Amino acid sequence: MLHISPPRYGHGLGNFIFSGNFLRKNENINIQWSGNLPHWNQDNVIQYVTFRLSDSLPQSKLKDFILLKNEWLKNHQKPWSEDECEEYEELFDSVDQWLDQGYGECHLKYKEAIDIVEMSLRKYDGKRYDLYDYIIMPNHVHMLILPRIGYELKEILKSIKGYSGNAINKLLGRHGKFWMKESFDRLIRSISDYENKVEYIKHNGDYIKIK
Fold first, then answer.
1. What does pTM read for this prediction?
2. Which residues, in sequence order, are bridge partners of residue 133?
3. Alpha-carbon distance 102 to 17, whole Å?
């Protein structure tokens, strides 16, 4: 028998934060496009990451988001200014609000599934990355993470999602895609930006709506 459990907030092994762990405006940022989203990387910078279940957003919302994104891109030619970069990332704030509506099967409402995700988050904490605050919601996960030199965020997420997705599918007796392939990630710009994300993560569970 599976047990229903509330969202789980936690903190990894990440304890120290230095000024160099925030976005350095005058240094190169590696931008990679994957599917519909840009993924920005800069060595030794903390990232705010959201990854979600494959059924966590209705198709109508995804279409709305893609239309909004394409309209913005049409009106903003690269290279972008710093303000334009921030404005573009703000487009994704609405996605968090949609996720909090509890759409989909919400497989992460089960304690046993939460345990698997938490174990996968902590497996290489302190080795391949430093994990700071995180919360496991019924249909998505938020976390603050600092990839260590030599490890890319996309590979870290591939490992976390691959292991946990397979294990939870086995737990639930289901097959097929568990996690959405793409994740939302954002470079943390300052200590105030970091603190805002910590507060959002910490209180995210207060607003979840499970159907």
1. 0.85
2. 11
3. 33
Query: Under a CB-based contact definition with an 8 Å cutoff, are residues 42 and 30 in contact?
Result: yes
Q: How far apart are CA 168 and CA 136, in angstroms?
A: 14
Helix axes 153-172, 111-122, angle to 10 degrees: 150
Residue with tokens 């292991």: 163
Q: What is the pLDDT along the chain (211 residues), one digit of tens a residue?
A: 899 999 999 999 999 999 999 999 888 888 777 666 678 889 999 999 999 998 876 666 667 777 877 888 788 877 777 677 777 777 766 666 666 666 778 999 999 999 999 999 999 999 999 999 999 999 999 999 999 999 999 999 999 999 999 999 999 999 999 998 888 898 999 999 999 999 999 988 665 554 4
179: amino acid identity, one letter: W
Instruction: Give the whole-angstrom CA distance, residue 113 versus residue 136.
Output: 10
Q: Which residue has the tokens 């909004």?
A: 68
